[in-house]
Every structure is written in structure tokens, then in C-alpha cells.
# Entry
Amino acid sequence: MTKKVQLATALVNAPRLLILDEPFSGLDPVNQGILEDLIRDAARGGATVVFSTHVMQHAERLCDRLLLLSRGRKVFEGTLAEGAGVLPRRLSVTSRADPSGLPGVASARAAGEAKDGWRDWEVELGAGQDPADLLEACTAGAFPLRRFQTREASLHEIFLHLVGADQENRP
# Structure
């Protein structure tokens, strides 16, 4: 309730800049949703909203731009799509054969048991490789596919990729 009162006090004057520090902490899912709606309303009303969070899902749903910090230093600034661009492209495919040898594939891991000759695979492409090129190679080479789906990186995965290595080296 205290957070609601504080936010209502901050919003009553329709500020042009709203800075929120961990606004979702201690809120149940219903009140988190209400707060997300209030933040969206403030942004639609022309306010610039800056907030800190350790809950990546809130940032994914609410932010146009992201700033990731590690040990007080900026490790990334940009959009979610730009952040996803720092990770290798990943796919989920269902095929009759191991896709490891296909052009542009850095690695392929079986994701379950084969069923009727078909197996699911988690595929990681090499740096700079385009999934469309792999699909074209499969078609041209008569590599049978039942499913070919790109996997978009979540902010959680981006954060772990960019900040995780730094955190592992902490004393």
C-alpha cells in the first residue's frame, strides 16, 4: 500500500520525468500489473520513465531502451533487438538427420528422443549467420525438415551473456 501511495503522489502532478528504483519489489502479481499499466500511461502521456529492476520480464515488457550495468559500468545500451544481436542466432528444428554439418551451424544438440524418425534439435548458428541462409541450404540440399523456428533471445539470456562472465570472475 505504501508503494501505491508513493506512486500516486509522484504521478499526481503528471511529471515529465519519472525515476523509479525497483518499483516492483514487494508487490504481488496483481499490483505489479497495475503498476505496469500506470507506467505505460505515464509514458503515453509524454513522461520519460526510468526505472531500475532485477526482474528482466518487467524491463522486456515496458522498456523501449535498456541499459545493463555490471559492477557500476555500462555493458550494454540499446533496444532489446540490439541486445539479442550480441548473441548467436538460435533455432529449434525438427529433422531426420543431425543438422551439425549444415553450413553456418556452430552447434546442434538433440532435444529429446526421436519419434518416427524425426528428432528435435536446438541449433546455434555461427557468428553473423542468417537463419534464412540455413533454411535455403536445407531446401537446396534436400535436407528434410518438419519444423524450423528461430528463437528470440530473452533479456534474461542477454543479461547472462553480457554480465554473467563478469559476475563469475568476482572475488
